[in-house]
Amino acid sequence: MAATLRAAKWFLQVPRKVTPPLSRSVFQIGREDSNNPNWIRVGLSLSSTVLLWVMLIRHHDYEVAEYERRKKEQDS
């Protein structure tokens, strides 16, 4: 019983010092320069966001129109 409690205490113990990783991430090549943004990437991000929102709103309007049409058919 005591050995089990010691093992559980050792396992749940918070490490005193966190060591940094030994290697860098593959995806982290360099830091982005925040003073000089990549305007092509910014434009692509914003335009894709706008496109997705437009598609979402158009699909919602289509679904609402279809709902109203079916509701009208059912009442008739």
Large-scale geometry: flat
- Strand content range: under 5%
Record field, number of beta strands: 0
* Average predicted local confidence, pLDDT: 84
| Radius of gyration computed on alpha carbons | 28 Å
Q: How do the helices and strands follow one another from N- to C-terminus?
A: HH
What class, by secondary structure content? mainly alpha
Ends apart, CA distance between termini: 76 Å
Number of helices: 2
Largest sheet: none
Spans of at least 5 consecutive residues whose pLDDT stays below 50 are none
Helix content: 55-70%
Subcellular location: Mitochondrion inner membrane
Subunit structure: Complex I is composed of 45 different subunits.
Family: Belongs to the complex I NDUFC1 subunit family.
Membrane topology: Single-pass membrane protein
Q: What is the topology?
A:
Layout: H1 2-12, H2 39-75
Subcellular location: Mitochondrion inner membrane
Subunit structure: Complex I is composed of 45 different subunits.
InterPro entries: NDUFC1
